[in-house]
Design goal:
- The protein has 273 residues and is an alpha+beta fold.
- The chain has one domain.
- It has 8 helices and 10 strands.
- Strands 3-2-4-5-6-1-7-8-10-9 form a 10-stranded antiparallel sheet.
- A hairpin with a 5-residue loop joins strand 5 and strand 6.
- The protein starts with a strand and ends in a 28-residue tail after the last helix.
Length: 273
């Protein structure tokens, strides 16, 4: 898997977070893992009810058993994961996942929910149709939410944005401040409604020249797509996004992080732009 999609929900979600988790998984199955490809023909799910354990749900063939999975997701469980892979003749043989969908509690007492999806894209990162489908998925999955943050990355498998790693920002701090400072920026960046307003809204960002597309979410917030394809998100495009979003980015000069080989950030203090 080389393309990762992340979204953060918080306690300001306009509808119950459990319903948004169900929507995320259902939309991912429909958009990214329709079942037509051999690589995603088989699937499994694991849902853990609480931090201390509680009830655990395990399923095979999530499409066939969707009602059971949806019932397990709706109470907003501590952790949930669905994997898609090729069929295996031997049930005991491990087959690498072709794609994955997940959700987990973050922050003190589960104040935030981290949603994720990962796919194996390969050369398709240069295909406008495939890339448009990634954005369509994110827009559909988050349409009823006002996400605190969202991003689509290539070859970044960390559950925190590169900017947070480069600024050495603590886990609780970035969650607590996610509606006053944007957590980062990527090929696609999800901006909560409060920060979108500070940036002048969709119309102002659309004419900034930094984005290929600007989408408004029905529940609040924006999705900002930097270039038509993931492959086209080069350093020049990244700098344009950085400059457009600088007024809401956290202050500080990013530094290289030895735990991450290729940080996709501009090594400048956003407060000085």
């Amino acid at each position: 898997m080389d393309v990762t999609i992340w979204a953060t929900l918080d306690e300001q979600a306009p509808v119950p977070r459990g319903d948004l988790v169900v929507l995320w998984f259902r939309t991912a199955i429909d958009f990214l893992f329709s079942g037509e490809a051999k690589e995603t023909a088989d699937s499994y799910a694991v849902v853990t009810e609480s931090f201390s354990g509680g009830r655990e749900t395990r399923l095979r063939d999530v499409r066939q058993n969707w009602p059971t999975l949806a019932d397990a997701l709706r109470p907003h469980p501590f952790h949930a994961s669905v994997g898609f892979h090729e069929p295996s003749v031997d049930e005991e043989e491990w087959v690498d996942d072709f794609g994955r969908v997940g959700s987990s509690h973050k922050g003190r007492g589960g104040s935030h929910t981290e949603l994720s999806a990962a796919v194996r894209a390969g050369d398709r990162i240069g295909d406008p149709e495939f890339c448009a489908r990634l954005v369509d998925f994110l827009a559909a999955a988050l349409d009823g939410a006002d996400p605190a943050f969202a991003r689509v990355d290539h070859l970044n498998f960390h559950d925190t944005p590169d900017l947070e790693a480069a600024l050495r920002r603590g886990h609780r701090k970035y969650l607590r401040e996610c509606r006053s400072h944007l957590r980062g920026y990527s090929w696609v960046t999800g901006v909560p409604s409060e920060l979108a307003a500070r940036l002048g809204g969709a119309s102002r960002l659309a004419v900034s020249g930094a984005f290929h597309a600007v989408r408004e979410l029905r529940g609040g917030g924006l999705l900002l797509q930097a270039t038509e394809t993931l492959a086209g998100y080069d350093d020049r495009a990244m700098r344009e996004v950085f400059r457009a979003l600088a007024p809401v980015l956290p202050p500080g000069i990013p530094e290289h992080d030895p735990a991450r080989e290729n940080l996709r950030v501009v090594f400048e203090d956003a407060s000085g732009v």
